[in-house]
Design brief:
The complex is a heterodimer of chains A (571) and B (267). Chain A is an alpha+beta fold and 571 residues long. Chain A folds into 3 domains: 9-167 and 282-433, Up-down Bundle (Butyryl-CoA Dehydrogenase, subunit A, domain 3); 171-278, Beta Barrel (Butyryl-CoA Dehydrogenase, subunit A, domain 2), CATH 2.40.110.10; 463-569, Acyl-CoA dehydrogenase, C-terminal domain (Four Helix Bundle (Hemerythrin (Met), subunit A)), CATH 1.20.120. In chain A, 59% of the residues lie in helices and 11% in strands. In chain A, strands 3, 4, 5, 6, 7, 8 and 9 form a 7-stranded mixed β-sheet that branches. The longest helix of chain A has 40 residues, at 329-368. Chain B has a single domain (4-220), classed as HUPs (Rossmann fold). Chain B has helices spanning 40-55, 72-81, 99-112, 133-141, 195-201, 250-262, and strands at 4-9, 11-13, 36-38, 60-66, 85-89, 118-122, 145-155, 159-166, 169-176, 179-183, 207-209. In chain B, the strands form 2 sheets. Chain B has a 9-stranded mixed β-sheet with strand order 9-8-7-10-6-1-4-5-11, sandwiched between helices. In chain B, strands 2-3 form a two-stranded antiparallel ribbon. In chain B, strand 7 and strand 8 form a beta hairpin. In chain B, helix 2 packs antiparallel against helix 5 (195-201) and helix 3 (99-112) packs across helix 4. The longest helix of chain B is centred in the N-terminal third of the chain and has 16 residues, at 40-55. Chain B is globular and about 70 Å long. Classes of the chains: A alpha+beta (571), B alpha/beta (267). The interface between A and B is medium-sized, with 17 and 11 residues.
Chain lengths: 571, 267
């Protein structure tokens, strides 16, 4: 009888963010579906009430079904039978319950049988699902593929494939190949046009494909013969029932056992082009990847929440030296920093989701009518913001999920190392989060643009200027002075040139400083709205100060000659 | 042919989570202190009805409940899960009804709904635990009844086959429609809400029937129609007086069993 939405007031708090009213009005186009579709809202309050109710339903299923099944799913894993991947029994149940509850297709327009929710509640659902079962969050999250079909597919593809999401069809995005991991420009899987059948044919191998046996696959393939870079790649839809794909193996993995990872061989597999040729990687994959990165950030926050709650409960129950271990300050510190990191990344997650909502909705409106000047400006501003916040939240949330699950085991002590408690599973499941959908290192490569362009600095200054109660002035002061340090660090490193090795070497430090500042500010603004974030705001500001000071000291003392030692030791 | 199903449901205080203030000083249930929930076995009954609708899509499911106006909440709850609609039988004249008066009012309401093929209900409600309303309603409707249903085996336009959960086994029964079926907690539990239905029906107006609407005779309703009179309710706290530790010898066990029989604790 657990409800992961109702027991976590930080979630409904995010649904009440002041920007939500504008998002809802835009998303609902002034409530034009009301009266035509029976589940469409009539106004902002009605829409919010629906989000709360549907998220409560997902929270209940996450608590009562997904969480309960998670241990057996981890134990059972997946298997191949007759060229099909068979989910663990618990996974099958999870998927059926969520399908019957009609919650797949949360963000898809009602016209295509979706619920037409904005990104914020959609991301929240992913967080809830991940708290129940981190691995299952992948199967859930791959409905993101529908976003790509919606944005770039033609009307026939939209009306064919989008309603399948709500009906429980599964999806996969087939990008990685044996020689094309982080470097997707090297994709080789070949697409050739079949004049006779008026379709494309795919031939080649894809590796590490999450949910590889999905009903509908989005496949990145080389359509332009003779090309070797990203400009020769296009995007295709393959329907499982057309055949032509052999599942060669599923990987045995450290964690997320319930989420199948397959190696697929495409042999003359029938496929249809999505959007335009040659834009597969440079436009569509990048768009899909941004959505997926937000999904991994949500997955990470959900897992952090689970780890914190497990650790806290155990620390209260476990007695040593005549008292519960939660009463020892070293344990308190572990638990509190877990809480503060989770709150900080959640604040950043929904700040990012709101930015994504704003620009995506305006992009969608632009398909219906010409945008006004101020609308175009908003689209541009939020799009830029989403671009720099997405890699930041993916970086921090996934790294924190690893730290939090590590600390969860630490609170448990020896028991945490045993299979008897869920924390060792959390720890294993967390490990992939800093890797897939772009490693932490690649998030830094994406995020450094926000440092160089001044995007982060502008955001930090905007947050500094947000009105808050006088009681926050000391925290604000600390952050203002740290921001000045950030500017000095950026100035020093930029002086080496943005394409220099010295810049590349220090980029993570700069990105992280910006991240600490943004998250601390967001927590202060949240604490100004609700006292429940006060302790996290205080603690995270101190934490940010400590971490920024380390990085500042390193950069201050950095000499380009230092790089030589790194070359020597990695030679 | 489409089937018409009625599911009898009751909104009950959640007696599974009883706190200190669950009972009033007068010894009655303190309804304010306990959350009002969908009676658990009525949810099993609803699920069995929905399982029929899964097989025969044009089946129509109507909830019938009796209680104060807020009982409309459980009709909406059932609609979120797949029921088509429902009615609340609500009238001050119904206050204090025992199982006889309740089954009379319910049966009158069911009759108002026209031809019904199956009436489902939970075996019993957790506030009274009588298990009488279902069978009495069947009698008043003049239709056969199957109690303790655990599994829907088969359904056609003419008959239904049900597996019953009995104390020492299971029994499979087939009977013609119409029929009343009371469902046991061992039957499949209710499905979750469906998101679209939840949004569509969250503010649904629920039809209300008063005593006149169901053409009830007033003297058969409420306290006047209820031969059951509660004389007194005691709050009993069970405590043990003392402990006896016996060596596990044949003689000791023999004596213990004899003592338990003599004191009517067993046998």
């Amino acid at each position: 009888m657990a409800n992961f939405f109702e027991d976590n007031k930080a979630l409904s708090f995010q649904l009440d963010n002041p920007l939500m009213d504008e998002i809802i009005k835009l998303k609902e186009r002034d409530f034009r579906d009301y009266g035509n579709i029976d589940y469409a809202p009539k106004d902002v309050e009605d829409a919010k009430d629906s989000y709360n109710k549907v998220l409560s339903l997902i929270g209940e299923i996450s608590g009562d079904v997904l969480d309960v099944n998670a241990a057996s799913v981890d134990e059972q894993g997946v298997r191949i039978e007759d060229n099909a991947i068979i989910y663990a029994d618990g996974t099958k149940e999870n998927h059926k319950v969520l399908t019957d509850a009609g919650v797949y297709g949360l963000s898809i327009p009602r016209k295509y049988a979706g619920l037409n929710f904005p990104y914020v509640p959609y991301v929240m659902a992913a967080e809830l699902v991940a708290r129940g079962d981190c691995g299952f969050a992948n199967i859930w999250g791959l409905q993101d593929c529908a976003e790509t079909i919606y944005e770039f597919g033609d009307e026939q593809q939209k009306s064919t494939y989008l309603p399948l999401v709500n009906a429980g069809y599964t999806f996969s995005m087939d990008l990685t190949e044996p020689d094309a991991g982080s470097d997707l420009q090297s994709v080789r899987l070949k697409a050739t046009f079949d004049e006779k059948e008026n379709c494309w044919r795919l031939n080649g191998v894809k590796r590490f494909i999450t949910n590889g046996d999905a009903d509908i696959k989005l496949v990145l393939a080389r359509s332009e013969e003779g090309t070797t870079d990203g400009r020769g790649l296009s995007y295709f839809i393959h329907d499982r029932k057309d055949g032509g794909v052999t599942i060669r193996r599923t990987e045995k993995k450290l964690g997320i056992h319930g989420s199948p990872t397959g190696e697929l061989v495409f042999t003359n597999a029938k496929a249809y082009l999505v959007g335009e040729r040659k834009l597969g990687l440079i436009k569509y994959t990048m768009s899909l990847m941004n959505g997926a990165r937000l999904g991994v950030a949500a997955q990470s926050v959900g897992l952090s929440e689970a780890a914190y709650r497990e650790a806290l409960q155990y620390a209260k129950e476990r007695e040593q030296f005549g008292k519960p271990i939660v009463n020892f300050f070293q344990v308190k510190e572990l638990l509190s920093i877990m809480r503060a990191k989770t709150d900080a990344t959640r604040a950043l997650l929904y700040e990012t989701a709101r930015a994504v909502d704003m620009y995506k909705i305006y992009e969608d409106i632009a398909k219906e009518r010409k945008l006004e000047t101020d609308e175009r400006q908003k689209l541009k501003a939020y799009s830029r913001l989403a671009d720099i916040l997405t890699p930041l939240v993916k970086l921090f949330a996934s790294e924190y999920a690893n730290q939090n699950t590590y600390d969860c085991i630490q609170v448990y002590g020896g028991s945490g190392f045993m299979k008897d408690y869920p924390c060792e599973r959390f720890y294993r499941d967390a490990r992939i989060l800093t890797i897939y959908e772009g490693t932490s290192q690649l998030q830094v490569v994406a995020a450094i643009r926000g440092v160089i362009s001044g995007g982060y600095l502008a955001k930090i200054k905007e947050l500094e200027a947000t009105d808050v109660d006088a009681k926050f002035s000391s925290m604000r002061q600390t952050l203002v002075s740290l921001r000045e340090d950030y500017e000095k660090c950026v100035e020093k490193i930029n002086a080496f040139g943005s394409t220099s090795e010295a810049h590349e070497f220090n980029s993570r430090r700069l990105v992280e400083i910006a991240g600490y500042l943004i998250m601390a500010h967001l927590l202060i603004i949240d604490a100004n709205r609700d006292e429940m974030f006060m302790a996290s705001a205080q603690l995270f500001t101190k934490h940010a100060q400590e971490k920024i000071n380390e990085r500042r000291a390193f950069i201050e003392n950095f000499d380009v000659e230092d790089l030589e030692a790194y070359r020597t030791l990695s030679d | 042919m489409s089937l018409k199903i009625v599911v009898l449901a009751k909104q009950v205080p959640d007696t599974r989570n009883v706190g200190k203030d669950a009972m009033t000083a007068e010894g009655t249930v303190n309804r304010q202190a306990l959350a009002a929930i969908f009676n658990p076995e009525d949810l099993n009954a609803l699920e069995m009805a929905l399982a029929i609708k899964d097989r025969k899509k044009d089946t129509e499911i109507t909830i019938v409940t009796m209680g104060p106006d807020r009982a409309a909440e459980i009709v909406r709850d059932a609609m979120f899960r797949g029921a088509d609609g429902g009615v609340v039988v609500s009238d001050r004249k119904l206050a204090g009804s025992d199982t006889l008066a309740t089954s009379y009012a319910i049966s009158q309401a069911v009759k108002k709904l026209g031809k019904v093929d199956i009436v489902f209900g939970g075996r019993q409600a957790i506030d009274g635990d009588t298990a009488q309303v279902g069978p009495q309603t069947a009698e008043k409707l003049g239709i056969p009844q199957i109690t303790y249903a655990e599994e829907l085996v088969d359904i056609t336009d003419k008959d239904i086959t049900i597996k019953r959960r009995l104390e020492r086994g299971v029994e499979t029964i087939k009977t013609n429609l119409p029929v009343l079926v009371t469902v046991h907690s061992s039957a499949p539990k209710a499905r979750y809400y469906n998101a679209k239905r939840l949004m569509a029906y969250k503010n649904a107006e629920i039809k209300m029937f008063n005593a006149a609407d169901i053409e009830a005779e007033d003297e058969r309703l409420g306290l006047t129609g209820s031969p059951t009179k509660v004389k007194k309710i005691d709050s009993v706290v069970l405590t043990h007086k003392d402990n006896v530790t016996l060596e596990p010898t044949d003689a000791n066990i023999d004596n213990l069993v004899k003592e338990l029989i003599n004191t009517h604790i067993i046998g």
